[in-house]
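User: Can you model how iron/sulfur cluster sits in this protein?
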Amino acid sequence: MKEACGVFGVYAPGAPVAQLTFDGLYALQHRGQESAGMAVSDTEAITVVKDMGLVTTVFDERTVSCLPGDLAIGHTRYSTTGSSTWRNAQPVFRPTGTAGFALAHNGNLTNTEALAEAAGMLPGFVASDSDLVAELLAQRQKPGVSLEAALAEVLPMLEGAFSFVLLDATGVVGVRDPNGFRPLCLGRLGPEEDPSGWVLASETPALDVIGASFVREVGPGEMVAIDADGVRSEQVFPAERVDPRLCIFEFVYFARPDSRLYGREVHGTRRRMGELLATQAPVEADMVMGVPDSGLPAAEGYALRSGIPYGQGLVKNRYIGRTFITPGQEARAAGVRRKLNPLRENITGKRLVVVDDSIVRGTTTRSMVRMLREAGAVEVHLRVSSPPFGWPCFYGIDTPTRSELLASSRTVDQIREYLGVDSIEYLTLENLLMATGVADAGFCSACLTGHYPAAVPAEAGIELAPLPAGGLAGADALAVAGHRSIANA
Ligand code: SF4
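Assistant: Here's the modeled complex, given as structure tokens:
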């Protein structure tokens, strides 16, 4: 029941909302490639279309043109192995109230057992955590009870990560959990003085693509309701639960480079990660190259700061999704060969600095290093633009169990040996936070430090530990002590 997804919503009477939703989802395709769907309302009836596959597989021109309406929501989904089924495609629909409601979820709830009990559902009959929330809402949305009122009752029961976009017959609602783990922003169609519509989206490129202007990020714990009366905002969580913890990996890996988070463009922060990495971990080499795609800006930054020429060493098949978000170990290993191919003329006889954004299991990196050596690289120095990934994520990103994570039980030297590189260095958490330019804005870095800011599922057997004195920077010292530069001199 863990997902990394994209959500979108639009309220724009008179506009082709299904087309706008299609375009928005297409811009959010990187957040989920297993299924896509949308729910459209003409203010009387809601139509839901969803299926397995990419946005362009699920929707064609004819389908989109057959979905007239004034408001719509959409979803792109990624799930863990075994739960990539039609039943779990979103939006989830419930036929309550006048026309029912539909829900799209990015995140992962961590108290599903308690919620299933509250909903009177047997855990084995719960399709997903999103399904569970829909059930809890449906039980409360009796005649005369608005979707907003039902949400105000259900939301405080939820723990974990959720950026929801919902729709009933006449309105769209967006909600972000009190830690704001997953992004969600509000945009406007038309001029400020006379808006023609409003948009909610996981990332700002989904606003750009439909010509909407960025208004602001939906705040942690905030509910934004949009209907014929305009936009209303409400804080639905008690102040003590509101603690901004945007996932730091949105900056490192997940978000598109042209996204803006906390007011910063992601590409620039990735480039700064590379610059700081070059200062922190210099090495003599002939060429700096990045691992496509999300390692490229950091490689640019490393080259810029170090003065070592930047070059392309790998070509990525652009029609293949990122292997980190392809379910199944077997599919993942085969995916590397399908995805990357070396540029031999650029590589042969060279000492390479290879910059990647993160190492999770290490399988992709190991195959890639072998590929570079076979193509004639004489030295491979790996530089990683994030700290060692040693803990699983419970907040909406599908990561392996702790034992499958390369950095959970190995020293950096053991990691170097396993990957077959001449040297390896990870960016420190302190430098990673500095690269964002908003180090104090509030981040989750639990997968790097083991300090989880919100409840994790009881069955994970992980005890919550408060951050040590010094906050995240202090946590960095704890997490990566002894994980610093190891060179195979
Ligand atoms: S644990 Fe890691 S991947 Fe998960 S939300 Fe926190 S920073 Fe992001």
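A couple of observations from the model: Residues 6-244 form a domain with the Glutamine Phosphoribosylpyrophosphate, subunit 1, domain 1 fold (CATH 3.60.20.10). Confidence is low (pLDDT under 50) at residues 474-489.
User: Helpful, thanks.
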